[in-house]
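Appendix B, Record 12. Input sequence as logged:
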Amino acid sequence: MKLKQVLVTVAISALTALSVVWGYSNYLKHSSSYGGQLSGSLPSNYTLTGMRDNGTPPGAIDFTQPAAIALPAVVHIKTKTNAKQVTNSLPKMKQNPFSDLFNDDMFDQFFGGGRMNIIPEQKASGSGVIISDDGFIVTNNHVVENADEITVTLNNKKTYTAKVVGADPAYDLAVIKIDASALPYLIYGNSDEVKIGQWVLAIGYPLNLETTVTAGIVSAKARSLGLNKDKSGNAGGAVESFIQTDAAVNMGNSGGALINTDGKLIGINSAIASPTGYYSGYSYAIPVNIAKKVVDDIIKFGTVQRGYLGIQFSAVADMTEDQKKKVGIAESIYDGIFVTDVPTDGGAYAAGIRKGDRIQKVNGIEIVSGGELQEQISKFKPGDKVSVTVLRGEKPITLIVTLRNKAGNFDIVKNDTQLELLGGDFVNLDAKKAKEYGVPGGIIVKKINPGALYDQTRMKDGFVILKVNDKEVKSVEEMKKIIGTDKSLTISGFYPGYDGLYEYPITLE
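Logged structural output:
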């Protein structure tokens, strides 16, 4: 009897256990408390990631081959900037009783103002990427800017003297050249195809070390940090759309290569995010699709042929709730570029884009941030046509915009090296103003930029140039011809509203 009771008890227990297991598993099948994580099937986003049929990820990536491809094509750049003697051209404080009676220049003549400062010799180090077998190298503008001597050391220890072909601070890119042949070089990849989360390698010469390879993933795209400035020192005219990675990058990595696992160049390492100046978690690279366009322009034209859309804008994602409400954008919308103004002399206005439009796509590529807009437009030169899709009200409209240059036309921009050394924004004095001032013509210095005018004179914005080396100049083109042949210059002119002529002696180095 006891045995029979035991068997019955065991049978009941087994049935109970089976019932509990069946019920719990049935509950899990219908439960949504874990968002489907226990459903046993992969969500749709995993179908595009290369997961194997059994749900396991692919094998570990081997970095040895891409590193071996890239190492010979990344170079060590060393620069030297000679000691310089410059005039202190900072605006003077009113510290003397004559400051309200005499112009600064007159006071300097009598009392020996305009102190001379000595900038000591400076040496620096960075990296570069060989992009052709005959010695063209791309690097950052800030690596070679103002350098008097540039040396390039290859991975095989061969050293060459390099010269600057051209540079543009707005992009923080420069092209230098060494006299060599049959060099290894990196093939361009496609930065538009770079995906967040993909593996990348950073290669360069950090902290004056030998060639160094680090690995990480792409953590963001189209980052804008406010680091770059254009030739006038204006951050608003700069182009930034960085690839953000967590590959370790330090001082000296600037200008080096960011490559994918195929060994193709996808970016030029440029900056780090760090409170100490050393790597603290994130690094930033200029997308190769931007670099490629800049490099090609510099080699072909000597300067970048930059196309402008011709709008002022604000990224919707950066707008406050009050700003959105004011222009009729719903709080829940964060994508697109809101057009705040459209100058009538630009390509956008001619194409039909108007204030209040919201740009959604450029050439079919969705645009969310200002960096993305800059990145797409920066691939084109003046005269190129781009397709721009805007939302006007609730209606999408696609317009074809012919990009223009900064001057508002389609002309090829020439490289005016001597004019850049002079340092300034110059415009022709119009006939009406010339008649008002009683002069036959001249050139207005709209803004003093870094250069000879800044370093060697106390010239102020608004000065009107009448003569260069005692030759009358009535246009910027006439001035270019003179400064193209002479290094020692004397610029003569006047300040509107003030009596007397002023002369500024300058030496272009």
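Residues 166 and 175 are 6 Å apart (CA to CA).
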